[in-house]
Amino acid sequence: MGMTHLEFLYGTRIFGCKTCNAHFSTTEDMMSRAFNGQYGRAYLFAKVVNVRQGEPNDRPMTTGLHTVRDIFCIKCNTQVGWKYDKAYDEAQKYKEGKFILEREMIKTVD
């Protein structure tokens, strides 16, 4: 297995892995701060980099049934959130293809 190539981001504020500082996203790609995750507050992002996606599975959530994939930091393999693949409720379709990053698992990085 070779070295992992990390993508470095530039922006007003960069969010990264709390464990290893790998960059994930920026405030420019943040869509909402009004989400909840497994560990409390979570943010919705349009674009996230430097993550590995797990297998899809159906998960009942407070807003209905969704098909999601857990996402993991590609540098340290910490689970940091999930990606929405499919929303079964028409009002939740805007989440498809978007990412949740758990506030507890990320921090602002330089």
TrEMBL record:
Residues 13-110 form the Yippee domain. Coiled coil: none annotated. The keyword Metal-binding applies. Keywords: Metal-binding, Zinc. It comes from the Eukaryota. GO terms for molecular function: metal ion binding. InterPro entries: Yippee (IPR034751), Yippee/Mis18/Cereblon (IPR004910), Yippee_fam (IPR039058). Belongs to the yippee family. PANTHER family: PROTEIN YIPPEE-LIKE CG15309-RELATED (PTHR13848). This is Protein yippee-like.
